Structures are given as C-alpha cells and as structure tokens.
Amino acid sequence: MVCSVTVILSTIYYVQVINFSVLLKDLGVADPKSIGLSMALPSIGVPIGAIVFKLTTRFGAAAQIVLVFICFAVGLGGIGIAPDYKVALAFAFVQQLANGIIVPALIAWTQSKFSFEHRGRGMGWWASSFFVAQFLSPAVVNLMRGWVGNLQGRISGLRTDCRRVRRDGRPAAPARTTGAFPSFPLNRQPRGPA
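RESULT FIELD:
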C-alpha cells in the first residue's frame, strides 16, 4: 500500500515539474529566460507548502494527503484550462504548494505504517517508489495524449483523476473523455512560436 500510494502521488508530483516548461511554450512564452523565470516563480509554493505541512501536522498524515489531492486537483485543473501563461502560473503555484506538503506528509505516513525495526526497509521502499514515479510521470502524461489531445488536456485529465481518488479513496483509471471541461477546447492545436 505504501508503495502504490507513493507511486500515484509522486507521479502527479512530477507532472508540473517536468512538463510546465513545454506548456509555457505552448502558451506563448518563447524566450528561455522567461520560461526559466516562469518555472521559478511557482516554486515559491514548495517552502510555503512545507510550512503548511507543519501547521497541519495535528490533523495527521491522512488529512494532509487529502489536502494534497485537493491542491493537485485545483492546480492541475487550473493549469489544464488556463487561457494564458499568467493564469497557468497561479495554478502552478497551487500545484507546488501541494508538492511542498506531500514529501514530508508521505514520509510521516510511511513511517507510521512500519514498526521501528522495519522503518529503514520501509523508507527504502518508499524512496524507490518516489523516484520510480519520476520515470513514470512523463510516460503517464504521454499515454493520456490519445485520450485528450494536447498537454493542457492531459494535465486536466490528471486533475480529474485526483478528484476521483479524493472521493473514492482509491486510484482511478485515467479519464477517457474530453468532457471534463466542455467549454474549453481540449483538442486545440498548440500555438506556434510567438
């Protein structure tokens, strides 16, 4: 259970981190300096998320993980429907806020699942699962291409999955429809260089 939850959450963790620069280019940010700065700005959410983790420890790791799913759903959904890069940056901040909460929350939750004698081995499994997700995240995003069309649509599809996990308490299969946000043209072609 520890490994599966970690792989799912860590795969979502890496979506924005790995794909956001490509999305910024699709939204019209062409200059590498501007892309780098735009990638750095939402990252302020990570240390703020760590502070939120500290402030929410009294509610337990399970509640923090639910909070992370909510932030992932809002962040990914907002990035997925963002009409321009400024809106995408605001929602990327929410995603990064979740990223600041998730690592310490997952570590605390994992340690609570193992007795003291087995925590070293459990953390080894956790670390392996976390970094396997770094490999899996781009693969999952690319698999979703056939279902939803473009990068923004793929990110929105992951947002839908976060909502389904949060409701059911179990992971869901990727959404196969483009109807998650019917008013937004998910199958539009990315814009060319600005």
